[in-house]
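Annex B, item 7. Sequence and C-alpha cells for protein A, then protein B.
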Amino acid sequence: MIKRDLKRADPVAEEGTSGRAEVRLHTLAANTSVVVWYTGPDGAMTALNPSFGAFTGRAPRQYLGWKWLGAVHPEDAKHLFDAVQRDVAAERPATARYRMRRYDGEYRLMAAQVAPIREDGRICEWVGVSIDVTEQAEAEAALRANEARLQFLDDLVGATRNAADPTAIMRRTARMMATFIGATSSSYAEVHADAQTYTVRASWDADGELEEGVAHPLDVLGREALAAIGRGDSFALENAGPARLHAPGLYRLESESVLIVPLLKDNRPAAMLAVTSILPRTWSREVVSLIYDAADRCWAHVQRVRDHLLLLEQDRNRDHFLATLAHELSNPLSAISYAAATLRQSSSSRKTVETCTAAIERQLGLIRRLVADIFDLAAVKRGQLKLQPTVVVPDVIVNDAVAVAGPSIALARHDLRALVLDVHEAGVLGDPARLTQALSNLLVNAAKYTPDGGTITVSVTADAAAVTFRVQDNGPGLTADERARLLLGGGWRGSHSTVGLGLGLELVKNVVSIHGGKTEVASEGSGLGSAFSIELPRIYGHLNERCRILYIGALDAAEVLSQLSSLPVCALATASLARARAIAEMLHPTVMVFHTGVEPGDHTDALKDLVDPGAQVVWYGDPPAWVGAASIPNAARIRGGDLKALRDLLAASLSREKGTH
C-alpha cells in the first residue's frame, strides 16, 4: 500500500503565485516532452498540476475539474473521456494516445500512462505521465510511407519490366499510380517536339478509359499551367470545384482536384503524368515527388523499349532491303544473261542481235537508275544534294517526266493520260532536273506495280498557294498499313506479287521535302488503285526580282498572294516552319511575313534560325503564345486582316530595295 500525505491548497488562491518556480516550470515544459499530472479518484483534476499547466499554457481555472479535456483535440476528447471512465471503473493502470494542444497552439501527439494511488485499499488519486511522441510518430509514419513508396516503385518496375509494348507500360503506370494514391484517374501524355501539343498515350479511369491517341494544343491548360510545365514544375488545382480548365484526355471535366507533373528532357517538356480526383483534395509534396519518380521511370523504360523496337525494325528493314535489292537486280541480270547467251550463238541473225542489244541496254538502264536512286537518296539524307533552283512551269516537269518514264509505261502496255488543267501561268520554285526525277519516279512506280494494260493518269492542279502533281493508277491499291510503311521508306512487301525497295518513293519524299513541299499517298484500299501526289508552293514573279517575299502562315495566304501578284516581287507562301526553311534556302527572301496561324516549330530558336539576318520581318497579326517576345527583335507588326496595310508596307519595302540598287 502506498500512502501519500496530500496537502491540498486552494488552487484559485495559488493561481496568482509567480516567481522563479513558475518560470522554472514553463522553461521545463518548453524544453521537455514529458508532462507529469494527477487527478482525483474520478479522473477530474482537483489540485494544481503545474507541469500540465506549463505545457498547455492553461491557468488552473482552465484545467481544474474536467476542463483539462479542453486542451485535448476535439476529435479525441470524447474517446479519451470514455476511456478515463472505463479505467476508473476498472481501477487498473492504463495507457492512451491523444492529441493535446501545447501552449503555442500546436497540437502534439501524447502517449500517456496512468496508475492509481491507493489509501486503505481505496483509490485516492491517479498519477500519470504524458510524453510528447509527435516527432517519433512522424518519423515512423515517414519511414512507413517511404517503405510503401519504395515498394510501389519496385512493384511498378516489376509489373512493366517484361512489357514490350510502350502503351502497355504507360497504361500500367497510370493504373497503378491512381490506385496507390487513391486518385480517380491517371493519364500519361507525351509532349510533341514542337512543345505546343500533347497526345495522351495511355490512361486509367475508375469509370472507364479517357480519350487516347489524339493530339491537343498545350495552351488548353492555360497560361499558369503552361508556365509551370515549361519550368518543369508541377501544376495543381486543389478543391477547385468543377475544374477551371479542361485538358482533353488528361482528366474528366468534373474533376475537383488535378495534379500535372511534367518530365523535362533537354530543358523542354517531354511527357506529363496527370492524376485527378472527383473529390476535393490537396496534393502533398510526397505525392508530387512520387509521381515525378514514377513518370521518370516510366519514360526511361518506354524509351528503352522504343529504342529496342527501333533496332529490331532497322534490322528487319535492312534484311528486307538486301533481299529486295537482290531480287530487283536479279531480274535485269537474268535478262542480260539470257540476251548474252543468245548473242553467243553463231546463228544469231542481225535482227536477233539488235533485239538482244536493246534488251541489254534497257536492263542496264534499270540497274543504273536503281544505283542512281541509292546514291541520290544517300546524298539527300546527308544534306549533300545540291539544287539549282529556278522558276519552273508544271507542264515542262510533266513532259520531261513522261519522257523519262515512257519506256517503262510502254513496256507494260499501260494507257497514259496527262491532264494539265489551266495551270500554265502557275510556277514552282525548284531544280527542274530533281523535280522531273521525283515525278518520273512516281510514274515508273505506277508502271511497275500496276498489272500490264492498266491506266495511269498524271494530272496537275493549282490554287493560289500551291501546285499539286498527282499520279493515279488502277493497280492493286494499298492498305492503311502499307501507306504508312511506304511514307516511312519501308518499301513494298507482303500482299503484292511485285516487291520493291520503295526507294523511288522515299527519294521522291526527300526531294520534295528539300523543295519545301510534301508528298501524300492515297488509296481506297486493296484492289482499288493508288494515288501519289506532290504538293509544291506556288511562286509568283521571278527570282531576279530584288524584293523576294516568303509568307509563312496557315491563314489568308491566297488573299495575301493575290495582293502581291500585282507588285514586281517574287513571292511564295507556306504554313510550315519546316517547309519554310527549305524554301528560304532556295529563295533567300528579303522580306519574311509571319501570320499568327503559323504552325509551331521545334522551339523559338527554330524561328530565329529561319530568319535571314538581312531580311525584314513582319508579323501579320500578333505573334502566337509560343513565340518569345524577344525571339525576333525589330519585327514590324500589322493588324491581322489589314491586307491594305500589309501591301503598303511591302510596297514601301520594294521602294527601298529599288533605292539601294
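Protein B:
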Amino acid sequence: LLLDGARLRLVHPWTPRLYYCGDRRARAQAEALLHGIRTPTATRLTARRDLLRGEIEVVEVAVADPMAFSRVVARLAGICGLVFYNCDIALAQMYLYEHRLFPLGRCEVETTPQGTIRRIAPLECPWEREYTAPPLGVLRLRCDGDPANPNHGRRAALHVAVDGEASTLTGDTPADLLEALDRWIRRYDPDVILTEWGDSFLFPRLRRLAAACGRPLALNRDGGTGMRTRRPRSYVTYGQIVYTAGGSYLRGRWHLDAANSFAYEEAELPGLLELARLSRIPVQHMARTSVGTAITSMQLDQAYQDGILIPWRKSRPEAFKSGSDLLLTDRGGLTYTPLIGAFEQVGELDFAAMYPAMMNRFNISQETVNCACCREVPDARVPGVPHHLCQRRRGLTPRVLERVLERRAYYKARRAATAGAERHLYDMRQTALKWIGVVSFGYQGYKNARFGQIEAHECTTALGREMLLRAKDVAESQGYTMLHALVDSVWLTRPGATRADYEALAQAIVRATDLPIAVEGVYRWIAFVPSRTHPLVGVPNRYFGVFEDGTEKVRGIELRRGDTPSIVAAMQRRMLDVLFEAGTLAEARARFPALEALLAEQIVRLRQHEVRAEELVIRTVLSQDPREYERGIPQAVAAHQLVHAGVTLHPGEMIEYIITNAAAKIPAERAAAYARLPSDWCYDVDRYTLMLRRAVDTLLAPFRAATAQSRILAPAEPRTGEALS
C-alpha cells in the first residue's frame, strides 16, 4: 500500500531457517537426510542461546523453498536424538520477526521492475504509541434481518454496504446474485470485507454457488490464487468446551468475520490492529486466534530479536510435587466470601492489572523461577510457596509485559483527556491490551506455552494472595471493614469515610505492596447477592451497585448472563434503573412497589401471549456432541431437532431455543429450536414466569439480608506475614 493509495503486489525471496542439536550419530543422520531430499538446503554449525541452558552449539538449516519448510521439519523429526528450535513458527510470523516488520507498519522497499523486493526495512517500531492506520476501504456483508446463526436454518437476503451506501442483493438466479456482488467488489475494490457469519456460512455458500454456476467470484485481489480455508474445531480450555468456526482467508485483501473474532468483538478494528502490530501476526489470523496467541507471539518476537532459540516443544517439565506440596502451591487467587446484604458508602479499590503488574514488578518468568544464582538470597523468596525469583537478570516475560503495561496506561490517560472518535480509538486500543494482561498470567501455567512454567504461575498466585492480605491488614489497621475481596479488588467500609479517606488508604496500600492500586469509586450503595441454594452464603461474583457519580456496576446477575431470555434481562434492566435512582438504601426500599409493578406487567404480557419469540430465546453452549446427550434437557431437545433437520452441530457451539413445555412427558415437546420454530409454536408461561420472579428475587434478596443483619463484624487484628522486597 503506497502513500498515494496505490496497491501493489510484490514478491520477496526469503529463506527460512531452523536449528537442531543432538549427539554426533543423530546429527550425521540428519546431514545425510538433508543431502538426499529434493528441496535445496544449506547447513552450517553455529552457536545460539537457549533461554535455560545458555549458549549451545547447533546446526542451522536454511531451506530454499519456504513452502517446503514444514516437510523438511517433518522428515528431520523422524530422527531420534535431535532437539529442534525455530521449526514450528508460522512462516508469516517468522518472516516478520526476521525483517522486523509488522502489519500496517510503514517501511522502505527497493524493488525490481518485475515487482521483486530487493530490500525492505521498517521505518517505525510497532511499540510507537501514536500511529495512524492507513485509510482502509471496508465492504460489509451479512444476511439481512435477525443476526441469528444462519447455519441453523434461518435464510435471508444478502445485504451489502460500503461508505454509507447499502443494498439488498437480489436476482432471479444464483448467477445474478453473484454478478451483483461482483459489481460491488469491482466498483469499490475494498481492502477489507467485513462479514457476519462469513467463515461458517456466507463464504462457503458463495464458493459453492460460484462452482455450480461455473463463474469465478472476485473475492481475492490476487485473481490467480484460491482462497485459503481452515477447518472448524472444538477444544477444552479452563474446564469449558469452546467451538471456533473455520476460517476463510483472502489474498490481497482481508476477510474479517465479526461473528468469529474475539478481538474484533471486544475491541473492534482499532483493537484488532493494535494486537496485530504488537504481535506481528497477520491481521486475518489475529482476528481468528486467541489473545493468548498474541502474547505468545510477542514473547517469541522478543526472543527472536535477542537471538534466543525458540524450542519446538516445551522442554522444562513440571517438577515433582507431593500431595502436601500441591495443597500448598496450587491454590489460585484469593477470594473472600462477601458479607451478604446491601451497604452504603462502600469504597472499591482495584489493583491495576494486578497479575501482569506483579509479574513485571517481581520478575516472574520461566528462566527466573528457582534460578541457581539466587537460591540463598532471603529477599528472593516468594511468601507461602517454596520458590524464589531471580534478582540478577531480567526475565523475558517481564520485559514484554512492562511495555504492554506502560502502553495501556498511556492509552487510558489519552482516553480520559479526549472525546468523541479519538476517545473511542484509545478506548479500543487499551481494551485490546487489557486482554493481553488478563491472559498473560494464565499462559504461564499453560502446558504448551513455549516460555511458560507452572512454578511461575504458582509464584504469581502466591504473591497475589500476599498482596491482597497486605491490603486487608492496612485497611483494618485504619478501622475499615472488608466486605468482600476478589483476586485484585477489595470492597471496604468505615462509618463516615469519604472519597479522600479512601484515596489516602489506597496510597497506604501502595506503600505496603509496591503495586499500583486506585479507588474505583465510592458507592452510594452496593448489594452482594446471596446464593440461591444457600441463602446465608454470599456469591463472590454476584453484586450490583451505584457509585456517587451515578455510574453503575453490575456483575453476575441475570442481566449479565448470556443464557438469560431478553424478556427477563430487559425487565431486570428496568428495575435496576429504578433502584439506581435511589441515593440511599431507604430510598431504594421505597421503590420496591415499582419493581412489583414491572414484574406484574411482564407476567400479564406472558399470560396474554403478547411476547415475541425473540424475547423468549435462551442461548446455551453445547457441552458435548448432541448424540451424547441422554437426558431430555431443553438444549438437548433443541440440538436433536437441528440435527434431524440436517444441521451439523459441534461441541462448544451455541444454540438458541424456546421452552415450550418444561413438564412434558415427551422430551421432544419440552423445547423448540429457535431457527426451526414451527408456525404453531407456543411457550411455557409458568417456566418463563418463574424466570421473571427469580430475577426479581435476585435484586431483593440482599435487602432482606441487610434488614436481618444486626451488625457488621468488627475488624480483625492485623496479620503478620512474610515480605518480599
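Comment on protein B: Confidence is low (pLDDT under 50) at residues 709-725.
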